[in-house]
């Protein structure tokens, strides 16, 4: 249903990094046609220029939405990460500016789990080396160092949406699954939660990382951790590049302590497909290197486009912040008719709600519905009043913006 909010054409959607066209379809079906679309990421200067009049921006994992960039966008009302990770966005800076950030927490998880499973089997069979040699005309038919997955011990670090799916898939191959997570998690199948990272590293033949990037995970696998792993063990990282110390991995591969690796993510990744890529890992035939394509399948990208565009359109239309990662969550229906809806985003400090309610009371306006949620720093309130004409609503909005503590206020319909 196309919602009749005000001035939809004023809402510019800036979509970067080739987000799936399903996102454009959803936005257009919701009545938003002011869409600026780029197949790649923009460099800093171009991004600052493009974002300055954007109401919404959609990115994937490459575009860094730093505080400086966010502050170049005075009209910015919402950010969509068309992926799982949100570490590329300064979430605190966005909250301070009253900007909710949405992502797609599930849509590409199966794609990552499948890729990781395939890579583990290929590495256990030493296929990357045999493949590299065959491409050079060398026929090396041997069984040395080649193993079945059945019966091997898989250690999963981070037992969330991806880690737990991998656990089920690996058990179906006959692998024994162990996992380490900072939270206590329900083990699926016969998987076993380990009490520490060290215990997991010492137990596993194959280790796969599925943690987010945060201060506790940066360089969580370095020289010390490689030394705790079994000789000839295999490491897979399709989480975030900064989680593994790449130089330490290169040393562990050079000394043959680590038997192989599959790495999809790097501490520093090219900003576009036209930029060159280099890594100390390129010298090893027993390393599968992929260009951050864990979630890059047609199925995942199409679903992500639909999911995140729907969240942005819903926020713009109704004020719903359900599943925002940095913001108080408010989910509310669009009333059939007869109301005008305002939103007010404010610093979470005493007196703001009283001031807002006084504003409406002083004008003799009946509040038909009010929805408030707060986080430690931000308060978010959606106010429905008995319908008023546009000029009056604009006057109210002007006053609402002047309430002490207000970060942002909008009239939705
Ligand atoms: N390569 C790709 O294309 C690709 C695609 C999707 C996701 N990812 C990355 O994979 C990550 C994991 O995705 P997910 O959907 O499984 O996330 P998730 O949030 O469902 O799971 C992450 C798990 O890691 C755990 N964790 C957090 N810090 C930890 C720590 N220090 N030690 C141990 N466990 C810790 C959490 O408790 C949680 O269970 C994402 O954050 C994203 O960065 C990469
Ligand atoms: O966080 C994610 O979902 C993955 O890293 C995928 O990112 P991408 O959309 O840039 O491929």
Automatic annotation (TrEMBL):
Keyword Cell cycle on entry: no
The protein's annotated pathway: Amino-acid biosynthesis; L-serine biosynthesis; L-serine from 3-phospho-D-glycerate: step 1/3
Keyword NAD: yes
Catalytic activity: (R)-2-hydroxyglutarate + NAD(+) = 2-oxoglutarate + NADH + H(+); (2R)-3-phosphoglycerate + NAD(+) = 3-phosphooxypyruvate + NADH + H(+)
Database matches in CDD domains: ACT_3PGDH, PGDH_3
UniProtKB keywords: NAD, Oxidoreductase
InterPro entries the record matches: ACT-like_dom_sf (IPR045865), ACT_dom (IPR002912), AHAS_small-like_ACT (IPR054480), D-isomer_2-hydroxyacid_DH (IPR050223), D-isomer_2_OHA_DH_cat_dom (IPR006139), D-isomer_DH_CS (IPR029753), D-isomer_DH_CS1 (IPR029752), D-isomer_DH_NAD-bd (IPR006140)
GO molecular function: phosphoglycerate dehydrogenase activity
Residue ranges annotated for the ACT domain, each copy included: 341-413
EC number: 1.1.1.399, 1.1.1.95
Described purpose of this protein according to its UniProt entry: Catalyzes the reversible oxidation of 3-phospho-D-glycerate to 3-phosphonooxypyruvate, the first step of the phosphorylated L-serine biosynthesis pathway. Also catalyzes the reversible oxidation of 2-hydroxyglutarate to 2-oxoglutarate.
Family statement: Belongs to the D-isomer specific 2-hydroxyacid dehydrogenase family.
Protein name in the entry: D-3-phosphoglycerate dehydrogenase
